[in-house]
Amino acid sequence: MLIKGYEDAPLVAGEPLLARPGFWSNHLMAMCGAGASTERPTPECFGEDGADVDALSEVLFDPDRWPVFRVPAADGPGAVVVYRNLPGDYGIDCFLTRPDRGCARQIAGREGERSGTGLTWLELIRIAGSPAPTAEGAEDPDARLLLLLPLLDDLDVSDAGPARLSAALAAHGAPQDTATETAVLLLAHLMRRARHDPAGGSPLSGSRTR
């Protein structure tokens, strides 16, 4: 897959890292921002410990190897998440992919406080729940949901959202007795940042570009 602007980047498949202890803390805690007034989750919220989180951060943020997490969808556009590990210009970018196109189009970027156009809740659930069986990438719907969660850009989250997110967290190691609390905490941070305008259309429909 061609990612415009990343032709010479040291991209590596990131999917094997999903099963490593410390991954979800690194991926999901970053979206909460150090300066947020809402309580921030800890590694224990994800069933992980600080030592594992620190060890894996050295792998995730290696400037010589940029992990790429592919989330192809069977029934429409999918996504790719890239850890852009440029010294002095770190970020996590999300690209829209289409089965009928050979290149990916950026729809969002995140540098601490995420900026840009992200996904609605319905788009997030659709992509997470429709893995493409013949395409390389993350296949587990829960992992796909958690991978794309930082790209949620929507105030209109379903009433079932916390329960769906809680189930995904528990499936990937979060303690059962605190998974719901962690889900609510993550969504609270996302709602504080959400800037999606339903009148502006959806990036998946092609109505908005960057």
Short recap of the structure:
The protein has 210 residues and is of the alpha/beta class. It has 6 helices and 7 strands. A hairpin with a 2-residue loop joins strand 4 and strand 5.
Question: What does the model show?
Answer:
The protein has six helices and seven strands; from the N terminus they run ββααβββββαααα. The protein has 210 residues and is α/β, with parallel strands linked by helices. Strands 1, 2, 3, 4, 5, 6 and 7 form a seven-stranded mixed β-sheet that branches. Strand 3 (66-71) and strand 4 (78-86) form a beta hairpin. The longest helix has 15 residues, at 179-193. It is globular.
Short key terms for the protein model shown above:
single chain; alpha/beta; seven-stranded mixed beta sheet; 7 strands; 29% helix; disordered C terminus
